[in-house]
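Operator note (shift B, R.M.): manual run for Putative endoribonuclease L-PSP requested after the automated queue skipped it. Running by hand, logging everything below so the morning shift can see what happened. Input copied straight from the record, untouched. If output looks odd, do not overwrite the archive copy; leave it for review.
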Amino acid sequence: MSAPAFAPFGVGGGVVVSAGIAALDPATLTPLFDDFDAQARWVLARLDMVLGEAGAAREDLLRVECFLADRQWFGAWNAHYAEHFGTTPPARTTVVCGLPVDGLLIEVQVIASIT
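Run finished. Output pasted below as returned.
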């Protein structure tokens, strides 16, 4: 499998839409970490970086869409989400599904506003 070519985000009409954010090595398309907690922390840190690159911030998030490889990670995801976003989290959807790379446990995409 070759590395896909895509932008990390798109901006239009005052809205930022991210591509999928996952803890993958872009050269090898292998997970950077084997465990869920490390992948979740990396994804949330990268989310903040993508927002910054797009001219937005965590406070501008309208929605977070999360994809988990297994429902066993739902409780841990809730804990990471609460720690990262505190008392005013954005809207969120979490879906349990097959992810495109073996060993990938979590992927998120976001929608944010910019002014």
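Quick read of the result: The two ends are 38 Å apart (CA to CA). The chain has one domain: 9-113.
Leaving this for review. - R.M.
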